[in-house]
Amino acid sequence: MAWVQQLPSGSYRIGWKNPDGSPGREVVPAANKTEAKRMAQQREQQAWLKRNGVIPSKPEEPTISEAIQLRIAALPPEFATKRNLQEKLRYVEAEFGKRRPSSITAADVLTMLAGLPHLSPQMREHIRMSGQGLITFLTEKARVYSGPNPFKEAGPVNVPKRQVRTYPTDFLPRLFDTLQPHHRPPAATALLTGVRKGEVRVMLKANVHLNERYILLTSGGHRDTTKGGRERRVPIPEILVPALTEQLATPGPYLFPRPGTSKPYGPNWRVHDVMARACVRAGLIKGWRPYCFRKACGWKGQLEHESAKKECPECKRGLRWKAVAQDLRFKHLRSTWGTVAYTVTKDLRLVADVLGHADIETTRTHYAATISEHVQAGAEATAAALSPWRPRGVTTEETGAQQRKPTPIQEGRTVNEIQDLGRQGKAEEAGEPMVYGFLNRRPQVRFLSGSSPCFPSPRKQGVFLSAGVQRRSGTFAGFGTHLVPGSPLLKRCPGRASNHPSSQGSKEAQ
Q1: Please, are residues 253 and 204 in contact by the beta-carbon 8 Å criterion?
Q2: Strand partners, 320
């Protein structure tokens, strides 16, 4: 039975019976006792409907820590990236562990991501997607939450799109010379077949068919299948056959076992560090990093392009320099194969089938990074026309560019084509003769000297004519080589106008 109690403060306390039979109490901001009693009856009615099964009871909303435990426990056995998912959800739990999903907003998610500046944008996006998947699991699978997804509302992290890195083909022989003998066969297999690191690590001898020249890939390291979820065949080139023949003579079922054993390399195979050290020995470095060799100091500087003799800013001892390899690892052997294969064959389907891509758009986006021939030809033609190193007096034809053909009205002069056509149209409308000039030459200065009605002074006077005058709305403008007949200047100076050659035509016309 619902009840209402007025408190000394003026507020009201209501009571009702919960669906499980326990008493429920709450202080409500009611204006009067009648409103408080109505609220108590509503709570009592909702509890009765849930207790009798008319309205399904809503489960209690878990905290983020409880939701993560529920999510990890529900993963299937074939889920290959369980540990990776736990590492990403650890950041979510550290920020929202004791909070419930309904109390988290998109602003809270953005604040959490902004507090991880030491992580790359790609890693922050993975953390956001892991949180989004967690809330989606609570909503669709566990059905313990029905509110909005704050990780989805926060929006994706802006991740820069970079080109796939590849090994320079000129450095490959030097790179393989610096590798140790037991690292060369797996690296050569990845380079010449385009397989992944995990696929190389657990490659079985039974799946290598030298007579048919193909390798059957059935698993990808810690996965029961390959990354694409299906088996595939990759061709064996002829130059790889001797190396694979030697590896088939090693003990054990695996093609590339650990040196001296029959077991394969583990998931923590640090082959990326092996390739980084090989790049340093081969000369593929991007800079030098100074550091102090004293353990008590441990100072490290920023990456520099050149090494020099310097002192430690902390302990004033001499610094040592460490060569930093380029961002090339074992996985870039695969991208090198894909890029070179497309460059040589121009066949996207072939590259996609060998690399195991289900969508050919993935192959085109990541591995078809070469510049097409017509784009390269257009860039060369444009560079020849814009060559800033062309000596004076050398035309664009001599540099390989095509020169513009002059129009008939230019009569061999190099002028602005658009401006010239506009002047011609205005002259035709006004019925005046067209005057052409030289826009690529300095303006010539001519003087009208002597006494005249315009210049009463006996000394020489001069009028600047910009290589000629053209009449426009009673003013002098433009470039020309002669004075226009009937111009205001000639009318004001009849003595000089009669002597000017351009005035002869005006007199004959009169």
Answers
A1: yes
A2: 291
- Judged by DSSP in three states, 375 sits in helix
Task: For 427, list phi and psi in degrees, rounded to 5.
Answer: -65, -40
Write the burial class of residue 330 (CB in 10 Å: 0-12 exposed, 13-18 middle, 19+ buried).
buried
Say yes or no to pLDDT of 473 above 50: no
d(CA 61, CA 476): 86
Instruction: State the pLDDT confidence band at 61, using cuts at 50, 70 and 90.
Output: confident
Range from 160-174, 284-298, 358-372 carrying the lowest mean pLDDT: 358-372
Give the CATH number of domain 169-325; options: 2.30.29, 2.40.30, 1.10.443, 1.10.10.
1.10.443
Q: State the pairing for strand pair 214-217/208-209.
A: antiparallel
- Delimiting residues of CATH 1.10.150 domain(s) in the chain: 64-153
- Please, which residues have CB within 8 angstroms of residue 76's CB and are 6 or more apart in sequence? none
> What gap in Å lies between CA 231 and CA 234, rounded to an integer?
10
Nearest to 128 by CA among 108, 142, 145: 108
- How far does the chain reach from its first CA to its final CA, in angstroms? 120
Q: Which of 1.10.150, 3.30.1340, 2.40.50, 1.10.20 would CATH assign to domain 64-153?
A: 1.10.150
370 exposed, middle or buried (CB, 10 Å; 0-12, 13-18, 19+)? Answer: middle
| pLDDT, mean of residues 151-169 | 91
Query: Long-range pairs for 35-41 at CB < 8 Å and ≥24 separation?
Result: 36/4, 36/12, 37/2, 37/4, 39/14, 40/2, 40/3, 40/4, 40/14, 40/15, 40/16, 41/2
How much is the pLDDT for 49?
A: 85
State the amino acid at position 467 in one-letter form: A
Locate CATH 1.10.443 in the chain.
Answer: 169-325
Question: Other CB atoms closer than 10 Å to residue 497's CB: what's the count?
Answer: 22
What would the DSSP string read from start to end of 84-98? Answer: HHHHHHHHHHHHHTT
Residue 183: how many other CB atoms lie within 10 Å: 18
- Per DSSP, 291 falls in state E
* CA 400/CA 384 separation, integer angstroms: 6
Please report which confidence band the pLDDT of residue 393 belongs to, taking 50, 70 and 90 as the band edges: low
DSSP-assigned letter for residue 139 = I
The pLDDT score that the predictor gives to residue 297 is 87
Strands of 206-336, DSSP E = 208-209, 214-217, 232-235, 285-291, 320-325
Residue among 6, 101, 30, 11 at smallest CA distance from 60:
101
| Range name among 58-62, 244-248, 494-498 with the lowest pLDDT average | 494-498
As a whole number of angstroms, the distance between CA 191 and CA 240 comes to 10
Buried b (16+ CB within 10 A) or exposed e, 61-82: bbbbebbbebbeeeeeeeeeee
Q: Given the structure tokens 């929006």, which residue do they identify?
A: 155
pLDDT tens for each residue of 221-241 = 777 778 888 889 999 999 999
